[in-house]
Amino acid sequence: MFFVLLMLVTVTGCDFLRAVAGRPLSGDIEKKRIEIIKAEEDALQARLDSIRMAKEKAVLDSLTAMDSLKSYGVTMSGTDRLGGKPHTELTSRYYVVVGAFREEANARKLFDMAHEKGYSPVLISCRSRMIAVALCPTDNIVELEASYRSIKEESFCPKEAWILVSE
Fold it and tell me: Does pTM surpass 0.85?
């Protein structure tokens, strides 16, 4: 009897014992393994598609914000407009500049007005001795566009407000 059982296992493999024990056969196990791999691949592809769509939306939002700023007639300039490299360390890529002065007292007045309205102004000192009053530092062009629209409605904001692009 033992010899017959040994012969069946050798000829039919483990599937005979699995069938006798009521366990899944090797074909069933392989099918389940393939299903799990397929589900993991589908989940990964869904995540990649989501990331790709988010990036595409961010690019589209940025282009829309740039078009909007252009439609306002906004000037976007580097620090050369202030007379060269600033002494002040610029921590963000974009700033809304609401004034630039040779006299620090004038810059302080505008700084105080912006601060009273709830903004966190930044004084940017340049080598040319110009002092700019800048608001809403950001690295995000969409945030910049929204900030610019908001600032333009403030009584302290001159018609000539512009955007400083720190490279």
Answer: no
